[in-house]
Amino acid sequence: MKLDVIKLDGGAAGSVDLDEALFGLEPRADILHRVVRWQRNNAQQGTHKVKTRSETSYSTKKIYRQKGTGGARHGDRNAPIFRKGGIYKGPTPRSHGHDLPKKFRKLGLRHALSAKAKAGELVVIESAEAEGKTGALAKQIASLGWKRALIIDGASVNEGFAKAARNIEGLDILPTMGANVYDILKRDTLVITKAGVEALEARLK
Predict the structure, then answer these.
(1) Secondary structure of residue 195 in the 3-state scheme
(2) Is 14 exposed, middle or buried (0-12, 13-18, 19+ CB in 10 A)?
(3) For the segment 8-53, what is each residue's pLDDT rounded down to a tens digit?
C-alpha cells in the first residue's frame, strides 16, 4: 500500500510503501478493546482504601448491656451497621492489572495502525525536526489542519521538535517504542515519520 509523504511545510516528499501486514488489516473492535482495557487497567493506581471496623476510632466498649434493654444485641460502635462505623468488604489497595500475551499486544498495535489507515487519518511525514520555536511549529501544524494529533518518530525524538511541540495543545510526540494502541486511537490524526515507519515495521514483524 502506497502513501504520499509530505514535509511539515506541506510540500510533497515522494511516497512510501506501507506493509499490508501492519497497515492493511481489517480492524477488529474486540482486539482493540482488549488491548485498551489492558493498558488502562495497568495504569490504574488502585490506591482506594476504606476503614474496616478494626481501624475506626470509636471505643471498643460494649455500648449497652446484652439483655434487658429491648434493643438488639450490639458490641461496640465500630460495627458496620452504625454511622461512622467500619465499612464491610470495601475497596482495599490492589493492582487492577492483568496479563495479556505479547503477541496479542502486537496484534492490537497492528489493528490500531490499520484502523487509522482505513479511516484516512494516517499521515506520513519526511521527518519531525524543528529549531525549538513553538510559534513557528504551531503555524505549520495549523496550516496542515492537525487539531488532535499524535506524532510517532523513530528510535528517538528530535530534541528541538519535542521542545517546540511541548506547549502546543492537542499535539503529542512519541518514539517508536512508546507507540501504543490507546494513544493512537485517542487522537484524530496519526502522523508517522519515515524513520518511524521503518522502526514500526522492524518492531512488529
Answers:
(1) helix
(2) exposed
(3) 888 888 889 899 999 999 999 999 999 999 999 999 999 999 999 9
Q: What SS3 state is found at 9?
A: coil
d(CA 123, CA 160): 21
Q: Would you place residue 103 in the very low, low, confident or very high pLDDT band (cuts 50, 70, 90)?
A: very high
Residue with grid cell 508517522, as numbered in its chain: 192
CA distance 188 to 42: 24
Q: Where are the domains of the chain?
A: 2-44+98-204, 50-90
At the top level of CATH, the class of 2-44+98-204 is alpha beta
Three-state DSSP string of 103-152 = HHHHHHHHHHHHHHHHCCCEEEECCCCCCCCHHHHHHHHHHHCCCCEEEE
